[in-house]
Amino acid sequence: MGRHLQIDVDGLHTRLMSVFGIVEQMIDKAVQGLCEQQLQLASEVIATDDQVNQLEVEIEEDCLKILALHQPVAADLRRITTVLKINSDLERIADLACNIAERAQNMHEHPYFPIPDKLPEMANLAKSMVKMSLDGFVNSDTSLAKQVIVSDRAVDQYNLVVIEELQGLMASDPKLVVAALHCFSAARHIERIADHAENIAEDVIYMIDGEIIRHNHSEYSPELS
Fold first, then answer.
1. Domain of residue 162, residue span
2. CB 187 within 8 A of CB 163
């Protein structure tokens, strides 16, 4: 990699890391706002979304400038295209955090609704997947990326448990239906955050190995079967 290209790529990485940090905080605040009825945290998440949107546009513009100016090839090209895709996934994760925050605001009208115990555990795992995907990108570590892919199964299992509990609550008391639906929606958003973390992990593996494993996890790595 040429010196000027390296400088531009380093700047790109720095900006992407700042987005990762913002998005992680958004997930934390959104889930805390939901589970602990903290409206202020939910409002902070929603207010942050414009910042993430702006950063996404700036990073995309930087990527396109680098592609046009330096015309990178091979590994350098894979790295830039990976940043483009990760940037898009992070913006979607931020949107999902906002959706959770909105559900938290709606849940404020139902202060005594019993949040399923597995919901915060599910959220913590999804957030750890986002962090692992970042670490895999920063350290060019495919083993971390594979852990993210494996972890998605556990998030899916958590989601099924949460849905089953919410269905039970709705069946036991019709007055809980509205709150349960908000909670169900939040769980779905958390599950989608995990999916986007998995997308990032797949892109990290592509960046490092040059192999597209989307829809083909078990064939790529037998331990995932």
1. 3-224
2. yes
